[in-house]
Write a structure and sequence with these properties.
The protein is mostly helical. The chain is about 75% helix and about 0% strand. It has a two-stranded antiparallel ribbon with strand order 1-2.
Length: about 325
């Protein structure tokens, strides 16, 4: 189906409709211990990239708009569930431009909030009435949890390789975008060949996205990113920057430094630029973008053009 709206207007429309549906979810007020944090979590200024991808994928396959909205809402809820729990595990204090749930309400409330948001995601994907959609949704949910487990397992382990890192981000970030792209094909009743290409598109896009996130966590700012900066590296997490930095003299001293986070970030920025690590990471992100785009060759011109523009917006993002 061809879209008459310019790309930027289409993206703004899907985002605003997703935000509206999130605001208008029929949730009770009591117990406030549970529902107040849920409302707080869902009003954060998220980019809504995942539901946008569901819509862009499915519109080109003539999927029913109501199914796309339910599926897009489901993946956004599942994404928010992971963020609430990840923020607890990572002890992050800022998310989507506001305090994290555990910072605002407490750890117990945050755990319960995350659990409940995932239950809401299950109810939402159930509205689609598609067994394949339900199956891939839950498979991706488990993969995201596996990715987070690897993320925690790899903390402060200098032996982690680039391949292990790429496998981790494939599960933690790639699987969710892979799900979004495939859901559009499923809801458009496409065959396994098309579904597989859309999965590959989302997976490579997700890897590029996470590598960019690792870069931006160092080179962006809190206001742009809407979350804490430098927290992953200072917590000993393995990012594309730390993986590449291991090969360069001087990284050990910076990593072991006890200076304040602002000073440490400045030293890291200088180090990553001077050693070429930032450029190398950007090249890797671009390589995954190219792989993602190659999977779109199976699509009709107008559908491919729309998704290419989405890919380009990912490549050029600043937060």
């Amino acid at each position: 189906m061809s879209d008459t709206k310019p790309f930027s207007e289409l993206i703004d429309f899907i985002r605003s409709e997703t935000d509206r549906h999130l605001r208008e979810m029929d949730l009770p007020c009591e117990p406030s211990y549970l529902y107040e944090p849920i409302h707080f979590a869902l009003k954060g200024k998220g980019k809504r990239l995942r539901p946008i991808l569901v819509h862009l994928s499915g519109r080109g396959f003539d999927a029913e708009p109501v199914d796309l909205m339910h599926a897009g809402m489901a993946v956004e809820l599942m994404h928010n569930f992971t963020l609430v729990h990840d923020d607890i595990m990572d002890n992050d204090h800022t998310r989507h431009g506001q305090p994290t749930i555990h910072k605002q309400y407490g750890i117990n409330e945050a755990i319960l909030t995350g659990d409940s948001i995932f239950a809401l995601a299950q109810l939402m994907i159930g509205q689609v009435n598609s067994i394949p959609a339900f199956q891939v949704f839950n498979k991706a949910s488990l993969s995201v949890c596996e990715g987070q487990a690897f993320d925690l397992e790899y903390e402060n382990d200098p032996q982690i390789t680039l391949d292990q890192y790429l496998n981790m981000i494939g599960k933690k970030t790639g699987e969710l975008l892979s799900l979004c792209a495939e859901l559009g094909a499923i809801l458009g009743h496409k065959n396994e060949i098309v579904r597989n290409e859309m999965r590959n598109y989302g997976m490579n896009l997700g890897k590029a996205f996470q590598i960019q996130d690792d870069i931006l966590e160092i080179f962006s700012d809190v206001e742009q990113m809407g979350k804490s900066l430098g927290s992953d590296i200072t917590a000993g997490k393995q990012t594309i920057m730390t993986i590449l930095a291991k090969k360069h003299d001087g990284w050990d001293q910076i990593e072991a430094s006890n200076e304040d986070i602002s000073s440490k970030l400045n030293r890291m920025r200088t180090f990553f630029i001077e050693t070429g690590i930032k450029n190398r990471a950007e090249e890797m992100s671009n390589d995954f973008i190219q792989k993602a785009n190659s999977s779109l060759l199976i699509l009709k011109d107008d559908h491919r053009d729309t998704l290419n523009q989405f890919t380009e917006s990912i490549l050029n993002r600043t937060y």
